[in-house]
Amino acid sequence: MSDVTRMTATEVAALVAGGEASAVEVTQAHLDRIAAVEDRVHAFLHVDTDGALAAARDVDARRAAGEPLGPLAGVPVAVKDVLTTKGVPTTAGSKILENWRPPYDSTIVSRLRAAGTVPIGKTNMDEFAMGSSTEYSAYGPTNNPWDLTRIPGGSGGGSAAAIAAYEAPLAIGSDTGGSIRQPGAVTGTVGAKPTYGGTSRYGLIAFSSSLDTPGPCARTVEDAALLHSVIGGHDPRDSTSIPQPVPDVVAAARLGATGDLTGVRLGIVTEFSGEGAEPGVLAAFRDSVETLTKLGAEVVEVSCPHFQYALPAYYLIAPSECSSNLARFDGVRFGLRVGDDGVKSLEEVMSLTRDQGFGPEVKRRIILGTYALSSGYYDAYYGQAQKVRTLITRDFNAAFERVDVLISPTTPFVAFPFGSRTGDPYQMYLADLFTIPTNLYGGPAISVPCGLSEGLPVGLQVMAPTMADDRMYRVAAALESAVGTFTPPAL
Ligand code: GLN
Questions:
Q1: Calpha distance 261→351 (Å, rounded)
Q2: pLDDT by residue (tens digit) across 390-406?
Q3: The pLDDT value given to residue 261
Q4: Which positions ≥6 away from 20 have C-beta within 8 Å?
Q5: Which position among 110, 155, 174, 408 bears the catalytic label?
Q6: Is the pLDDT reported for residue 1 higher than 60?
Q7: What's residue 276's pLDDT?
Q8: Number of separate helices (H) and strands (E) present in the chain
Q9: For residue range 4-40, what is the model confidence (pLDDT) as tens digits?
Q10: Could you say which DSSP state residue 144 is in?
Q11: Tens digit of pLDDT for each residue in 249-258?
């Protein structure tokens, strides 16, 4: 049998379904790969060896009993450490949750288990999903498999690096401002942010509740679509979950793979096609536009004038919501507790715990958000940002009257060296210049590898209307059929 760790999830699932490999063999091969490369990559915060092998044995037993298996049964999947896993450590990349073992599974993880996939471990991330490089993880950064001296993106750098380094064929991320798509772009992998409310937030440790969206990471568009279909759909446990089925994203990916985009209208966002991005990124984007045109797509330019205010609006809305969400980490209910000596007051213990438990970026956001929500400044900052959010949504709605999807580079720059953007928060925030508008609007968007710049991967972003997730898969799969997939230099 050839190396299963190099196969797509679709291929691995077919091996297991056909009895050519057991789920245990597939899982062991990935655990061996993790053991071989993890000291260089550090994609995982916790590898759940026993849990993964038990889940794999269960799939093998079900197959032996003749029970029907799901389309991804027996396939290992790495899970971002922001999703709760029953009895398995869940830290959100923070010291404040060190050693916390949740008493329940998030809906995403329950669905992964029910589908027979094999959750293999928890991946590294910027603390509470705040960041674009994984450098803000309290447990040290993840290294990009393309160049170990560079960032793998963030906040879901661990998930993207795990699949790029062949430690798992699939991973789960969460996208609040770009944390699935930007890591996908800089690691040469596929990352999709579903429609907000199309995937459940139950058991997703909250950062910014009106933006947070869990979603799939994979090495191919079809694999991402399969994973999306397994985890997506209505969840009564999440009050913002959309009570409608997920569009047929798998069929759309397969249609796209035929390489025919005749009749599909693509909009290039004027505001995103010029300044702000590296020349190599813009060159790869222009080449992709030409490729998409050759596949039959019609390309027009569309202006979205309010997109330029998306970044500042996001950096008021997201910190505001985080300042409220992170109030639950009080040293009393779960996780770290500092200074509880029987003498200090509750308030002192709370303050010491939060001081030692949170890192500098998280503190910055809590302070910013608390300020923006304070009564004297609410209208000037938070209220204003919400108005901008409405204008951005109107830009999207107007654009989608003219085109089926919008396209742009995913992120303005390729993977940057460690330390090069941590000194100035704004330089880090710019990584999400092109991804944030979608989060404010709530629609779906995908990043698909489209080329290389200076030997490093570049991603193309496809943005679609809410609940039209299928459209982005079709376009992404068509591009993939033309440009192929990207393999990092040997680790
Ligand atoms: N990089 C953005 C931030 O730091 C987005 C993070 C995310 O999508 N979770 O907030």
A1: 57
A2: 999 999 999 999 999 99
A3: 98
A4: 1
A5: 155
A6: no
A7: 82
A8: 16, 11
A9: 999 999 999 999 999 999 999 999 999 999 999 999 9
A10: B
A11: 999 999 999 9
Please check whether residue 444 is in contact with residue 469, taking contact to mean a CB–CB distance below 8 angstroms.
yes
Burial 269-297 (b: 16+ CB within 10 A, else e): bebbbeebbbebbbebbeebbebbeebeb
155 is catalytic: yes
Structure tokens at 441: 């609007």
Side chain identity, residue 75: V
Q: Is the pLDDT of residue 143 over 60?
A: yes
With H, G, I as helix, E, B as strand and everything else as coil, classify residue 123.
strand
Residue 429 CA: which ligand 1 atom is closest? 1
Pairing of strands 456-463, 405-409: antiparallel
C-beta of residue 308 within 8 angstroms of C-beta of residue 331: no
CB atoms closer than 10 angstroms to residue 39: 7
Nearest alpha-carbon partner for 296 in 243, 246, 255: 255
Of 239, 235, 252, which is closest to residue 199 (Cα–Cα)?
235
Contact 107, 238 (CB under 8 A): yes
| Catalytic site includes residue 387 | no
* Residue 274 in this model has a pLDDT that exceeds 90: no
Interhelix angle 221-231/249-256, nearest 10 degrees: 170
Write down the catalytic residue from 179, 229, 288, 408.
179
Question: pTM for this structure?
Answer: 0.98
User: What is the per-residue DSSP string for 434-469?
Assistant: TTHHHHHHT--EEEEEEEEETTEEEEEEEE--TT-H
